[in-house]
Amino acid sequence: MSLKSQEVSEVFDAAGFDIIIYETVGVGQIELDVMQASDTVVVVLVPESGDVVQMLKAGLMEIGNIFAINKADRPGANKFMTALKNILTNHNMDGEIWIPQVVNTIATENKGTKKMYNAIESHQTFIYKQGIQTQKMDERYKNCIIDLITGQYMNSFWNDQNMSRLNNELDKEYCKRESPHKLVNELMNL
Fold first, then answer.
1. More confident residue, 32 or 10
2. pLDDT at position 190, please?
3. What is the rounded distance in angstroms from the CA atom of residue 36 to the CA atom of residue 34?
4. How far, rounded to the nearest angstrom, does the alpha carbon of residue 103 sit from its chain's CA centroid?
């Protein structure tokens, strides 16, 4: 997720929106960025999502605060929910105080959405009481400052002189180029 997305969420927050929803697809760096930018993460799965153990290996268990099994009217939904709850409970052996909730939903029929909303509110109350929300806000603020400074520094660093020096090195045959460390030291001293 880009810094701009985080800034947009701050605008929404300042405008009085209590709930801001990010939607992503898959599990990758962007989803991890969203996790850091969010107070509560809901991972939406379907009964056909596959083996719960495979999800554990994929790192999904660390991402979600709440797991929604959408299309819960499909075959295997209850079995999937039971397996997921068992894995989450057993995965919590390190003593975390929040055990992710699992909610069945059927979005097309608006079923389970109230339970989902209640689970989100429950998690919000929990992180507020534990001081986790303040920690997350402080971490986001710090990361925003670091990202802005990094961006401004990079923009000023790559002036015409430094860019020209890098391009001169790129014009050389690969085996005749300066080592990256030596070139960085030179660029830092220009």
1. 10
2. 74
3. 5
4. 20
Write out the two tokens for 128.
């507020």
Q: H helices within the chain, ranges in order?
A: 3-14, 29-37, 52-57, 60-63, 77-91, 113-130, 132-157, 160-170, 180-188
Residue type, 39: D
Q: Is 107 exposed, middle or buried (0-12, 13-18, 19+ CB in 10 A)?
A: middle
Q: Please state the separation of Cα 173 from the chain's center in Å.
A: 40
Determine how many CB atoms are found less than 10 A away from the CB of residue 17: 11
> What's this model's pTM, rounded to 2 decimal places?
0.76
With contact defined as beta carbons under 8 Å apart, do 46 and 70 qualify?
yes
pLDDT digits (tens, 9 = 90+) for 29-53: 666 677 778 899 998 888 887 666 6
Rounded distance, CA 188 to CA 186, Å? 5
- What's the pLDDT tens digit per position in 130-178? 999 999 999 989 988 998 999 999 999 999 999 999 999 999 999 999 9
Question: Which helix (H) or strand (E) is 28 found in, with range?
Answer: none
Instruction: State both tokens at 11.
Output: 């605008």
For each of the domains in the chain, give its residue range(s) and CATH number, in order of start: 3-131 (3.40.50.300), 141-188 (no CATH)
